């Protein structure tokens, strides 16, 4: 039995010599320490004795309780001597954090060692000890049993400090680079870093929330110990389309090019003129203004690359790119990485998640008025472009020929305000209604010169890995992008040009292949969407023509005791109001009714806590509302992808229903 001193959350002493075998009142804490021995490249960890009551046989750092009369550092020195058999001076310890956890206040230390110490391990508490490199620590929790709350603190507090110490052993050239790119010091699993502003001012507002949400897809999820092994993929968050063979004419064009000698020669920066002429014919066929010529086209390495090049041309420091909210989160960072500003126009359920032209106009006006008052002068920063996706990501809403008036109104507002309309039509061919494909804003003769259209192969044509995009815009802007391509990568890609020309072509034979190909794809996506509908709203809510097929698929995959639950409406979850998609492969689910519910120590407070909970259980992964700039912070929203195989959708939604039932 030990005696501890008890404190409040502010480390104010409440009671001395409390017996360790007596309960501790709520809101009162005893102290403990964790010590991470580190030699600059390795951590020394110990394996708990199998006789231990808690976590027997698990690996851990050194540590224990602070006994009565001690302070944190004295306890750390004592624990190191008792467990490792070495005496250390005070200046060998650095404090990394002081955390309040359950009934403990834990002080986390790094112990700086030389690496040649001779340890004498405590035989009663420790089975063995071992040095682990920083590289081994990255996946340690997946390879061995580790005390979970300790590894969580390692990720949160210890890891960054360790890599900073380790980086000092790198060559001077690397250290100089790290002085300007501190984010490279610590490796990231999952998503890479989303970047920063040139002035290093943090992202704020909606973009700050998007940044925070993106961080969860890095170390926070991918270093988490879960019920299922890491090899299990239960993610419905991917932006990748259906695994489907490439669009045959595009694939054939690439194969034919590989058999020629063209690849031995550099292409021109704007791309092959023959391919641009062919695509220009396609644009006219699809409703683009007839005045568009090959000089209005240029090829890029993806629509993301296209967006970057466009912003390089039109954006000055402080200028604003206006996005919808919700939006495609990755694009929203780009203006601020280039020294501009990202602003957001909230979409509303009552308007069908479509842009309201009058609100677009007033938002542009109010932003410009504010910037003029803030920075008066001849040419102050202003809104230079409005970015819209048609079909929209993530809502899947389409503005086609039936919404031509709305498309024209949006384009007119932008032109009258002197604001480019960036029209991203990447998902166009995935509209469930093939008779109402997205209408390009460049359709209108009096608007097309102010419209910048982004196109590509990523989402519709089974060639996301090609990274091939197109910009359609006024020839003045195209000249500028051509210069940027020449100044960065010299020339365009022959393969991209061939694939794009193969996809975006005219002729009866091409139309026949297109109709067959996309009829099958739309059918597959429609089935997958109805799987989600059946799981969320019950089988009776699904397309009546698909209900029997869905029942058979569920019966084939799930155990009998799980089938009825799967085919019944999901508790406390529904589609976002008026958000049933018209295109694409995303849908939006509303989990707001789960706020305040809990399971064990986990309480659902927002979308990030919900994702944490779902991932820790069955590695369920969605895209959070924060990461798409959801306009209402009081809602708990997830973007769910249905582009994967039906078996996976059934499996993941089955796990989801089970986990939701556990929340009380």
User: Can you tell me the CATH superfamily of the largest domain?
Assistant: Type I PLP-dependent aspartate aminotransferase-like (Major domain)
Corresponding CATH architecture of the largest domain: 3-Layer(aba) Sandwich
Radius of gyration: 29 Å
Mean model confidence by pLDDT: 92
* Distance, first to last CA: 37 Å
Outline the low-pLDDT stretches.
Answer: none
Proportion of beta-strand residues? 15-25%
* Total number of helices: 19
Largest sheet: 7 strands, mixed
Number of strands: 24
Domains counted in the coordinates: how many? Answer: 3
Structural class: alpha/beta
The CATH topology annotation of the largest domain reads as: Aspartate Aminotransferase, domain 2
- Neighbour order of strands in the largest sheet: 11-17-16-15-14-12-13
**Structural shape:** globular
Instruction: State the name of the first-level CATH class of the largest domain.
Output: Alpha Beta
Helix content: 25-40%
Describe what you observe in this structure:
- With 664 residues, the chain is of the alpha/beta class.
- It folds into three domains: 3-187, Nucleoside Triphosphate Pyrophosphohydrolase; 216-236 and 516-662, Aspartate Aminotransferase, domain 1, CATH 3.90.1150; 248-506, Type I PLP-dependent aspartate aminotransferase-like (Major domain) (Aspartate Aminotransferase, domain 2, 3-Layer(aba) Sandwich), CATH 3.40.640.
- It is built from 19 helices and 24 strands.
- A seven-stranded mixed beta sheet has the order 11-17-16-15-14-12-13, with helices on both faces.
- α12 links the parallel β14 and β15 (420-424).
- The chain is globular, with a radius of gyration of 29 Å.
